Amino acid sequence: MNPQHQTHERLLQRLQQTVGPEGVVCGSARMAPYLEERRGRFKPHAAAVVLPAQTTEVAAVVRACAEAGATIVPQAGNTGLCGGAAPQDADRQILLNLERMNRIREVDRSNFTLTAEAGCVLADVQAAAAAAHRLFPLSYAAEDRCHIGGNLATNAGGMNVLRYGNTRELVLGVEVVLSDGHIWNGLTPLRKDNSGYDLKDLFIGSEGTLGIITAAVLKLYPRPRQRSSAIIGLLEIEHAIALLDRLQTAAGETLVACEIMGRVPVEFALRHIQGCREPFATPYPWYLLLELTSSRWTDELPGLLRETLQQAAENRLVAEWRVAEDHSEAEALWRIRKSIPAAQKYEGGSIKHDISVPLSRIAEFIERASAVLIKRLPGTRPCPFGHIGDGNIHFNLSQPLAMDPEVFLAHWDEFNRIVHDIVVDMGGSFAAEHGVGRLKPPEVARYKSVVEIDLMRRLKAALDPTGILNPGVIIPPRE
């Protein structure tokens, strides 16, 4: 028998002994659901999928892989958009999926904390907080599928960053399995602890390259008693920035979300997703979607919204506006925004950009990038939408109507370079909330300084000296 095959078989036997026969998935048909990459940019391959049920099992799997010379790709809900959980080696790579680690370990209502394992679905974490009359504010369109471990590993953003911050701001402590199989129990519920380095921040956003997050202590907030949403039609995107300034001044911390949508992505949602309806009788080039919440009954949020928007309309910042009268109407408005990513798939090939720029330069970026790309390939349809309140725009491009999708997608690298050059020239980032994964290490090499890349390599070498954890992710290879 081939020595490599013998090593492979011994590793699989050891993994089965560690996690049980039901915890090791082999064979192309059974592995297929775990080896789907959402954007189709990668074709994942792995020697096996391993499903540990507890932290000690994760640690044992890491040790077994290290001894066998295999590498590990951690995976949570597999909803990532940059290929960070897509294994690339059918002989030596183990896909470590944490879906069986799905327990809410503790809800401390008085301390406003919740401890969840990495395989918990985000919507279940939200529900557990709500059952304790608390709020866990992290929210995405994929919240019924994504897992909290993946949210932490990518430091994802979502709808409510404007008020509550990125995932990093919502974490007090983490439990991590290190590259040598040791377990670091950093599950502190403390908000103040200056007794050493803040190690948790090394692992949040590291996409499983420095350690495998198995659980986290999450911050909770008072559950909102009031919620008020509004949609605004705008003639110019510059008006969105001016209006955001007014809203933040008037509403303060009650302004939770502020989303921009161009007419093109709104039309996609209306055309393809059931239940989406025109917000106004007149179509507008731009739409702003707002949400205010408060835990106080004394705040009169609909009235505050109406007064602020009426004043903005009198100053010609707003063409038309509507405040939702009830929860059902608010959900209908947010359905448009949440439906855009799915709707764009029906329009053929799509080239994605997850960028951020300073708020003051959002309008300039969209106008400049759109003009350059349409000139480069006439008929290209810019599809900008996203979290304008924190400067994060999903600047997606849909193919010209008559073009073959594959022909359009062949422009991916070229269009990425055009967009990212403009973004960085404006002091922005080419990876705002989706991470780097396997998709963007070339962008790291192009745009990050030599000093920054060297620091990342030093951290990787210190915490993962054998390179066992998610090789090929984030850090570009040495030339």
UniProtKB/TrEMBL annotation:
Keywords: FAD, Flavoprotein
FAD-binding PCMH-type domain residues: 42-223
Cofactor: FAD
Gene Ontology BP annotations: respiratory electron transport chain
Pfam family, one: FAD_binding_4
GO molecular function: catalytic activity; FAD binding
Keyword Transmembrane found: no
PANTHER family, A to Z: BLL6224 PROTEIN, D-2-HYDROXYGLUTARATE DEHYDROGENASE, MITOCHONDRIAL
Assigned protein family: Belongs to the FAD-binding oxidoreductase/transferase type 4 family.
Protein's name according to its UniProt entry: FAD/FMN-containing dehydrogenase
Source organism of the structure: Nitrococcus mobilis Nb-231
